[in-house]
Structures are given as structure tokens and as C-alpha cells.
Write a structure and sequence with these properties.
The protein is an alpha/beta fold. Helix 3 runs parallel beside helix 4.
């Protein structure tokens, strides 16, 4: 098969950044997605309903700045949970609706304090969140989790989180909708498969094509440094098997996380991979190589929407197996960002779309 048309995808984990960089990011996200779940780890973080609405409006303004039609793209907003988040704030966020009656804020993000970029305001103890989680369970709001502890070896943080945090959490809140975001280990795949139906997981494209050797062998490649960090090959293979399995517990979440090139190529570089420019194309490559291209649409465009309780898109995009070379950099506000696969070829590209 050299071309495929699928329902327009959604990205259930996207870093759109803020300020002038937002318009730069949207130039890549807009052609590939109809909806993106916007991460709230800005400076300052998006901790309240008012801040979420203000951020949404800035995103819509950036679309207009790019000459992109806001009616064809919906930012799905999230709140950043802290030890000071209240149940009343959850109820307030739940009541905020878009013009079409859909929720404006559809999830809350649980960052363990210090676990990743701009997470210093995050949760110090999950027990501090229990009243908030009870409110989320009551109103049906999604809990999006960065599923890593901060006290263990960096390659073991996800499996330990599952044992110490996830299992008790799921037991204590059996009706709470949960997304384990950007899972990166075989243990996470196995846990999600065994967990109740309210627990599902997103998978990035970079965790599907790279292992830690790609980042470390022969020299450090800072633009592959991300959190959760790339793991051993056995974990990459488990993620590919999960993503291409056709199991609705796994769906697309790119965690596309741009940083200015000079902040990645530094003595203490930022964590994050910028993939918005080629993510759908790479997912297509992964599914084709697995002989499961017929399952690409459900992973990219169905299972995530179903989990979040929103209607599947009706528009389509068409991909063609037609190699193209990724530029070495893209604009990123006043800076540049070095993209995933910079200077390399990507096998698939988007060649058309329908409204």
C-alpha cells in the first residue's frame, strides 16, 4: 500500500508553548490534527479555569495570526494540579463549555513535583489530591498522569510509579477516568492491559522508533533526550506491539515538546522531543513496518476520542508513501527548534485532507 486515507487524528498530549512560539508550533499541528490536548506546564502553569480560558484564547489568536481557520482546530484544555487545587476549581472547570456545548477543560494533569519540564509546582504527595480526585470522579473529568516517581533510577521510575502510585490510586478511585501518558516500558503496557477499562494509555512516536542506544551510543544526541527517557529495545518492541495491536486501551499522544535549539544543546539541556512536523507520518511508518497499516486510523483517530468521551472527527487526511527530507531547524518564535529526524528522510507524507 502506497497511500492511505484516515479520519483526521487528534493529539491527546501536545505542548503548544506560549507567546510567539505558539504560532510556530501551530503551523505543524494544524495540518495534522483537528484537536490537541494542550499541556498546562507553562510559566506560570495553567492552574485555574480562568487561566485555561485565557490560554485557549491565545492559541486561537495564534491560529488567526497564521491565517489558519480556528473553526477547523479545537484546543482541548487541561488544568495543572498542585497541592493547592480545590474540588471547587474542578467543578468550576467542568461547568465551562465551548460554543458547541462541549467541555472547554477536559482533563487535569498530575505532574509529580520535579518529574519533568516546568513541573516544580506539581504534586508532592498524591494523597494531597484525594479530595480533588473525588471531585473529578464525580464530574467525569480525565486524570492525565506523568507516570514516574522522582526518587528512583531514571530508567526505573515508571515501573515503580505503577506499584507505588497507580495501583492504589485505581483501587481507591474505581470510576475515575485515567490516562497514563507517554508510557515507555513493557511494565506499563502489561499494567494497562491488566487494569480496569477506565485506565488507558497514550504512546508517542519517538518511543516507537528509538531506544536509549540511539540517544547515547557514539555520542549524546540531545534532541532525543525526553522524559520519560528512552528505554531498552525490549521496551520499544513492547510499545510497538501495543500501539499496533488494535486494542482500544492505547492511542496517540505525541508529547511533542519543542525547546529552542540552544536550550537543548547545553551543559544541562531540556527534556523534550519536537515531533509535530512529522508525527503522523512516523506513526504510519511504524504501522506499515508492523504490517498493521489498517489499524492506524483507530490508534490515531478513534480510541483517544472514545476514551475522552468526544465525537470522532468526520474529516479525513490522506498520507502517501513518498519520502521527504526534514529541515535541520524550524522557526520557534524568535528562536529555532531542531526537529525530530532533522536532516533525515521520513518515508510518508500528508498529501491531502477533506473538511
Amino acid at each position: 500500500m502506497t497511500s492511505i486515507t484516515i479520519r483526521c487524528p487528534d493529539d491527546f498530549h501536545h505542548h503548544c508553548r506560549d507567546g510567539p512560539a505558539t504560532a510556530s508550533v501551530l503551523k505543524h499541528a494544524y495540518p495534522r490534527f483537528r484537536r490537541c490536548l494542550m499541556m498546562p506546564n507553562l510559566k506560570p502553569p495553567v492552574t485555574t479555569t480562568e487561566l485555561a480560558l485565557e490560554y485557549k484564547n491565545r492559541i486561537l489568536d495564534a491560529l488567526k495570526q497564521n491565517g489558519q481557520d480556528p473553526s477547523n482546530f479545537q484546543p482541548l484544555m487541561t488544568l495543572y494540579l498542585t497541592d493547592r487545587t480545590t474540588p471547587d476549581e474542578i467543578k468550576k472547570a467542568s461547568a465551562l463549555k465551548n460554543d458547541d456545548g462541549t467541555p472547554t477543560v477536559i482533563g487535569c494533569k498530575y505532574y509529580p513535583a520535579g518529574a519533568t519540564t516546568n513541573s516544580d509546582f506539581g504534586v508532592t504527595d498524591v494523597k494531597n489530591l484525594y479530595p480533588v480526585l473525588e471531585a473529578m470522579q464525580e464530574v467525569g473529568m480525565m486524570l492525565c498522569i506523568h507516570s514516574e516517581v522522582t526518587h528512583a533510577d531514571i530508567f526505573e521510575r515508571e515501573p515503580i510509579f505503577i506499584e507505588e502510585i497507580m495501583k492504589p490510586l485505581v483501587q481507591d478511585f474505581p470510576r475515575l477516568k485515567i490516562t497514563m501518558e507517554h508510557i515507555s516500558t513493557q511494565e506499563a503496557v502489561e499494567y494497562v492491559l491488566s487494569a480496569p477499562s477506565n485506565v488507558k494509555a497514550s504512546i508517542t512516536c519517538h518511543h516507537l522508533i528509538y531506544n536509549r542506544n540511539h540517544m547515547l551510543v557514539g555520542g549524546i544526541r540531545p534532541h532525543l533526550y525526553c522524559l520519560p527517557i528512552l528505554k531498552a529495545e525490549v521496551h520499544r518492541k513492547a510499545l510497538v506491539e501495543a500501539a499496533t495491536s488494535g486494542n482500544p486501551k492505547f492511542f496517540l499522544g505525541t508529547d511533542s515538546a519543542p525547546h529552542a535549539t540552544h536550550t537543548k544543546e547545553a551543559a544541562c539541556g531540556c527534556a523534550g522531543v519536537f515531533s509535530a512536523h512529522c508525527c503522523i507520518e512516523i506513526y504510519a511508518q511504524v504501522f506499515e513496518q508492523a504490517g498493521k497499516l489498517d489499524r492506524l486510523e483507530d490508534f490515531c483517530s478513534s480510541f483517544g476520542a472514545d476514551h475522552y468521551g468526544i465525537a470522532r472527527n468526520t474529516s479525513t487526511i490522506t498520507l502517501e508513501k513518498k519520502p521527504w527530507k526534514v529541515p535541520m531547524t524550524y522557526e520557534f518564535g524568535a528562536d529555532t527548534v531542531t526537529p525530530l529526524k532533522a536532516g533525515e528522510e521520513v518515508e510518508w507524507q500528508i498529501v491531502g485532507s477533506s473538511a
